[in-house]
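To whoever is on call:

I kicked off a structure prediction for a single chain this morning and the downstream step that reads the tokens threw a length-mismatch warning. I double-checked the sequence; it's 251 residues and nothing unusual in it as far as I can see. Pasting both halves so you can look.
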Amino acid sequence: MAGYIGTQPVPQSTQHRESFTATASQTSFATAGYTAGFVDVYLNGVHLLNGTDYTATNGSDIVLTTGAAAGDVLEVISYSTFEVNSQNFTGDTTVANLDVTGTFTAANLTLSGGVYLGGTGAANKLDDYEEGTWTPASNNIGTLSIQRAQYTKIGRQVHLFAQFTGSSTTTVTLDNNIVISGLPFAPDSDTPRGLGGILQFYGSHGGSKNALADILISAGSFDCEIIVVRGSFTYADCISITVNVTYNTTA
């Protein structure tokens, strides 16, 4: 590595130095290469001003504005990409592009875009993860008393969980419909009917009655058509109704 004698330090230096002895009126000096904008030029120890005293734009040549005198010494210092080996950063660190070949560990990582998992195609990009609460409502089982209502969103897929009671005394029987509104994200039009969903009714007697639901997602709500119920009872007999449903959102 240029500029060092003995064992090279780690991380490696980003400097490369070259020295030229000019001929009379020489203006162009061919270097081993540089990145435009990352070079310093000295003539007889005097730092030259880029764009005024010289130009360095093509990645190889340094061209003086005024020809040098015979015997003048031109020194070129170019800078390459900085390489970091097993470093720890604290506080906020901002990078435009970060390539990691080993293990990358972070307590908290904030991304303005997404992360590609297992590949670089559009199908490999995860651009959203979110957890939160939502407020279910219903127009056919009365006012809901909500114990818990949570969601998890991974990409475009949303999973909902809710536990509540209704104020209606309507009897739950086979083929009844329960409409739950207040979805936290708008459903995609390609969300199919017949999604996996479970309704479970906990009775005041301490037992439970399970229902499988054929779930139809529509704008802002899902319609749960009860397919199987062991017997029938009224909502007044319920101390809790649990709902689990998964659907796709638009974004």
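Update from on-call: the warning came from a stale cache, not from the record. Cleared it. Sanity check on the structure: The chain has a mean pLDDT of 78.
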